[in-house]
Specification:
This protein has 225 residues and is of the alpha/beta class. The chain has one domain: Uracil-DNA glycosylase-like domain (Uracil-DNA Glycosylase, subunit E), CATH 3.40.470.10. It has 9 helices and 6 strands; from the N terminus they run ααββααβαβααββαα.
């Protein structure tokens, strides 16, 4: 057979086979694993986001964790709370905000006439930082694509950022929490209210009055038709 004719046949066969191949999802890396960056180009359900997260090893935090703390609550909540990371109790139970700070958060939510079942609660990072330290920048970078996809799946109209790490991460700012709190910030059409973390309030109870002022603003906006 003419060599040129053979090359044409092989080239056509290659194009045909490529056309039959299924499209590879954008979040799959060339190595076959899940891309740590996680494409945000497509909307995913919470279940799909959790599936992609898997038994995550994208940063050092996985080395000491017991359980991944993905988040829980109403998957269609109008109000979402985001903290910085799980603590010891959360790491043990695999649920967000179930320790002392979590019990205070439950009371805070009740003070605006809601329950934990009415809202969605999660953290910036899904694994416990050692000794409850703040998550570091590279740890946040590994986890924040999943947080943003959670937000896209839930589509809350209001988001309460608990503490400096959550507030700075969501709003992409280096401003202090004391400067950020007390007013709503816009994040892609979502009203974000930064406030102090419940764990901070356990150490400095006098600041509870400031959080109450923030919560009243959240409640007022939440109750609007």
């Amino acid at each position: 057979m003419d060599p040129n004719k053979l090359l044409q046949i092989l080239s056509g066969l290659k194009r045909h086979l490529i056309g039959q191949m299924p499209e590879i999802p954008s979040w799959i890396s060339a190595s076959g694993g899940v891309n740590p960056g996680l494409s945000l180009e497509e909307d995913l359900s919470l279940e799909h986001v959790r599936e992609i997260l898997g038994e995550c090893t994208r940063c050092r935090l996985h080395q000491g964790r017991k359980k991944i703390v993905f988040g829980q609550g109403d998957p269609h909540a109008r109000l979402m709370f985001v903290g910085e990371g799980p603590g010891e109790d959360e790491d043990r139970e695999g649920l967000a905000f179930v320790g002392k700070a979590g019990r205070l958060l439950t009371k805070i939510i009740a003070s605006i006439d809601l329950t934990r079942d009415d809202v969605y609660i999660t953290n910036v990072v899904k694994c416990r930082p050692p000794e409850n330290r703040e998550p570091e920048e590279d740890e946040i970078a590994a986890c924040v694509p999943f947080l943003r996809q959670q937000i896209r799946a839930i589509r809350p109209s209001i988001l309460c950022a608990l503490g400096a790490p959550a507030s700075k991460t969501l709003l992409k700012t280096r401003d202090s929490i004391s400067r950020l709190r007390g007013r709503f910030h816009d994040m892609d059409g979502i009203k974000v209210m930064p406030t102090y973390h419940p764990a901070y309030l356990l150490r400095y109870p006098s600041e509870k009055r400031l959080v109450w002022e923030d919560m009243k603003k959240i409640r007022k906006l939440y109750m609007e038709p």
